[in-house]
């Protein structure tokens, strides 16, 4: 029996997630459509890699791999991009929660002319959500959303789906040197190099879990300086976009 390849690959980098990972994995398993899953462990020192390997065991289209040494979240996500077989890719952080319709909704937005999709997310109760219908944004309007902090759609990668062919055509990968804001740069790089329409559904289908020991809570002054430099690089990308 030849298994059909799911249209969407979900890529999950993992690193020392402890008790948070099982809830994330359960939500992925509850998706209303079949997905391909890649779990990439970045040399965890706890039981995270073992949890991932046990979870995928015996499930077609679910894969787990573990790096022998710590390489960073960009390298883990790039491994997922390079090994994915789905036509579309979505990224989920290993301690966050997705709604059962997360995958199906991201795919539903890919109507003719749409080059990427996004859904609503909840983080610190900031988002009020909206109706379950897609609104279309131009490339310039989407770039405005992804190139600044505090916008409704955001520059994060975890509430979006990207066509794998577009990432390949544009040579778009995570900059593995970045310790911070690597997702903002990836998303802005994609939008700057990918003309077309962008579809956004404001329904909240992604919940960011605030882990007290996450990287977000350990920013140094050097990290802040790097973040400022990255946003300067992002603004340079704006020159590639035709204004509306």
Describe how the helices and strands are arranged.
Blueprint: E1 8-14, H1 21-29, E2 36-41, H2 48-56, E3 62-66, H3 73-83, E4 88-91, E5 97-98, H4 102-108, E6 114-122, E7 135-137, H5 139-146, E8 160-163, H6 164-169, H7 182-193, E9 197-207, H8 221-237
Parallel strand pairs: 1-2, 1-4, 2-3, 6-9
Antiparallel strand pairs: 4-8, 5-9, 6-8, 7-9
Helix pairs in contact: 5-7, 7-8
Fill in the keyword field for this structure.
single chain, 244 residues, alpha/beta, 9 strands
What's this entry about, in short?
This protein has 244 residues and is of the alpha/beta class.
By helix and strand content, what is the structural category? alpha/beta
Assembly status: single chain
Major beta sheet summary = 9 strands, mixed
Would you identify the regions where 5 or more consecutive residues have pLDDT less than 50?
none
From the spread of the alpha carbons, the general shape counts as globular
| Radius of gyration computed on alpha carbons | 17 Å
How many strand segments?
9
Estimate percent helicity: 25-40%
Q: What's the end-to-end separation, in Å?
A: 49 Å
Give the integer mean of the pLDDT values.
93
Helix-strand pattern: EHEHEHEEHEEHEHHEH
Strand content: 15-25%
List the total number of helices.
8
């Amino acid at each position: 029996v030849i298994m059909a390849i799911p249209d969407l690959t979900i890529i999950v980098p993992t690193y020392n997630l402890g008790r948070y990972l099982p809830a994330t994995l359960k939500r992925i398993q509850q998706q209303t459509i079949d997905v391909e899953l890649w779990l990439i462990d970045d040399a965890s020192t706890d039981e995270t890699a073992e949890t991932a390997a046990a979870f995928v065991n015996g499930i077609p289209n679910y894969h787990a791999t573990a790096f022998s040494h710590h390489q960073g979240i960009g390298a883990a996500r790039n491994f997922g991009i390079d090994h994915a077989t789905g036509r579309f890719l979505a990224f989920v952080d290993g301690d966050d929660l997705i709604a059962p319709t997360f995958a199906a909704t991201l795919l539903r937005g890919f109507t003719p002319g749409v080059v990427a999709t996004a859904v609503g997310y909840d983080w610190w109760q900031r988002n009020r959500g909206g109706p379950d219908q897609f609104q279309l944004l131009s490339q310039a309007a989407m770039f405005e959303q992804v190139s600044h902090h505090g916008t409704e759609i955001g520059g994060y990668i975890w509430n979006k789906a990207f066509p794998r062919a577009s990432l390949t055509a544009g040579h778009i990968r995570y900059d593995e040197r970045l310790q911070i804001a690597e997702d903002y740069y990836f998303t802005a790089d994609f939008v700057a190099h990918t003309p077309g329409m962008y579809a956004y559904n404001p329904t909240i289908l992604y919940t960011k879990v605030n882990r007290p020991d996450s990287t977000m809570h350990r920013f140094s002054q050097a990290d802040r300086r790097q973040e400022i430099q990255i946003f300067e690089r992002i603004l340079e990308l704006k020159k590639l976009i035709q204004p509306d």
